[in-house]
């Protein structure tokens, strides 16, 4: 029947003979407490109440997070005084920065492509035609992505960056061939464009078929690899086919309307020097190829040596699924000895927070710890911590990356007598495990019992600890 602290304060405990009353508020402090004390959360050593949100399959993180933040900002107006809303764990900044970096790379690629074409074609009109094809093809690719239900993410944008260098090839082939036909046969731009397309249309289709054969099979990969690279593959193949369509429809029309009959250039100036230098390189390359054709035994021996060297390096270079990245977040796990209380776990969490804030305070935004919860399960002897680093531009250098900081935290607490403390860099794809690295399972195939299994585990950990 009672629901507020004020109602509980009025509970009658005793009535004296003189009629005076003793109520609960007279002998006790009455306040609203937690519904459950199985979990405890602390933010920078201040009491906190935690709420975790996880995306539903197929949801867009940026849209979802914007909606959640807007709603929480509305609700925060009704918070009691002294209660503050914070975000100790947030993967949105890394996603946004990744997209921003890829967009910058895309713009740089387009600019580089323009200048490279201008240097080699040495004709502004001829350079402008392939450059116009870039935004047209990208626009069409975005439209296909929308139809297929794909979003603008790091994988699709990476495909766009790679496609920029490939999609202009088709337009360049058309422009160069039109100029060649105009020069050799003395035709008008319109007639030259018609003759040129009769000559190279098959080659353009062949180019895109080869590229499709390279990238499309990636879309058929199974498991997590297929999920990761499917969007990349479909995006780049779509851009390639659209580039061929543009090269066969729009580029000839632009050539017929924009190009002018070519005239022999001057023998002086930077362009002439570049042409002479490039001609010397071309002639030297042609002589080298001619010599290799004339010496087949030496050429085959060189080919075998190169093949063996490639195989040797392929075996020796370390392999990995996805590269580690500094996402601005560090995950941590605390495992106490059996029988440890939640207060003891919380004390270890406080020591971790104090060390991190004292050692890396100028590079750390917050340390959020939990008692009673970890990635390995729940219980009084389990704990977890989440470190949010400051923005990347505020912690330059490799010494302040999440990989380095997590490793130093591990080394500092490696010999801690109270708990096993692990600090790890999150995986490149959040749902693919809790940390980077590998999983190790130990199985008692000989039925030696629990004690023997633990002894073997401890032996493996001791050996692993010897590796710096």
How would you characterize this protein structure?
This protein is α+β, with helices and mostly antiparallel strands. Among the domains are: 1-33, no CATH class; 93-261, Multidrug efflux transporter AcrB transmembrane fold (Up-down Bundle), CATH 1.20.1640. Helix content is 57%, strand content 11%. The protein has 13 helices and 8 strands. The protein has helices at 5-9, 24-27, 61-75, 92-121, 124-148, 154-185, 189-215, 223-258, 270-294, 296-316, 342-360, 402-412, 450-465, and strands at 12-15, 21-23, 40-43, 46-48, 329-336, 364-374, 377-389, 419-424. The strands form 2 sheets. A 6-stranded antiparallel sheet has the order 4-3-6-7-5-8. A two-stranded antiparallel sheet has the order 1-2. A hairpin with a 5-residue loop joins strand 1 and strand 2 (21-23). Helix 4 (92-121) packs antiparallel against helix 5 (124-148), helix 6 runs parallel beside helix 8 and helix 7 runs antiparallel to helix 8 (223-258). The longest helix has 36 residues, at 223-258. The protein starts with a helix and ends with a helix. The model has no long low-confidence stretch (mean pLDDT 88).
């Amino acid at each position: 029947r009672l629901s507020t602290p004020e109602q509980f304060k009025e509970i009658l405990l005793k009535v004296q003979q003189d009629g005076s009353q003793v109520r609960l508020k007279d002998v006790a402090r009455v306040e609203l407490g937690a519904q459950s004390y199985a979990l405890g959360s602390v933010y920078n050593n201040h009491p906190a109440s935690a709420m975790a949100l996880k995306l539903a399959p197929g949801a867009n993180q940026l849209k979802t997070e914007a909606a959640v933040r807007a709603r929480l900002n509305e609700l925060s107006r009704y918070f009691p005084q002294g209660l503050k809303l914070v975000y100790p764990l947030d993967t949105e900044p890394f996603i946004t920065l990744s997209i921003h970096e890829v967009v910058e790379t895309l713009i740089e690629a387009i600019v580089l492509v323009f200048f490279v074409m201008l240097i080699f074609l040495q004709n502004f009109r001829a350079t402008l035609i392939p450059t116009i094809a870039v935004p047209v093809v990208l626009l069409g690719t975005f439209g296909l992505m929308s139809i297929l239900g794909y979003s603008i993410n790091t994988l699709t944008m990476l495909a766009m960056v790679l496609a920029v260098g490939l999609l202009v090839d088709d337009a360049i082939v058309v422009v160069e061939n039109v100029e060649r036909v105009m020069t050799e046969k003395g035709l008008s731009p319109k007639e030259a464009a018609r003759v040129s397309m009769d000559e190279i249309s098959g080659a353009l289709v062949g180019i895109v078929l080869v590229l499709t054969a390279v990238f499309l099979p990636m879309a058929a990969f199974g498991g997590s690899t297929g999920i990761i690279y499917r969007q990349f593959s479909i995006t780049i193949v779509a851009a390639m086919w659209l580039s061929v369509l543009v090269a066969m429809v729009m580029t000839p029309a632009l050539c017929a309307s924009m190009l002018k009959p070519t005239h022999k250039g001057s023998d002086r100036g930077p362009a002439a020097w570049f042409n002479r230098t490039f001609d010397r390189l071309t002639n030297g390359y042609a002589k080298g190829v001619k010599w290799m054709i004339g010496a087949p035994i030496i050429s085959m021996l060189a080919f075998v040596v190169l093949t063996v060297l490639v195989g040797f390096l392929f075996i020796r270079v370390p392999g990995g699924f996805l590269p580690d990245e500094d996402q601005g977040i560090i995950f941590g796990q605390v495992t106490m000895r059996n029988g440890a209380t939640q207060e003891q776990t919380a004390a270890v969490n406080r020591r971790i927070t104090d060390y991190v804030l004292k050692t890396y305070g100028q590079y750390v935004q917050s340390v959020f710890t939990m008692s009673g919860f970890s990635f390995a399960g729940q219980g009084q002897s389990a704990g977890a911590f989440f470190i949010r680093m400051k923005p990347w531009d505020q912690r330059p250098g490799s010494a302040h990356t999440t990989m380095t900081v997590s490793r130093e935290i591990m080394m500092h607490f490696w010999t801690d007598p109270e708990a096993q403390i692990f600090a790890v860099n999150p995986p490149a794809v959040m749902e693919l495990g809790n940390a980077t690295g590998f999983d190790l399972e130990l199985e008692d195939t000989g039925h030696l019992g629990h004690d023997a299994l633990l002894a073997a585990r401890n032996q493996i950990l001791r050996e692993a600890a010897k590796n710096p």
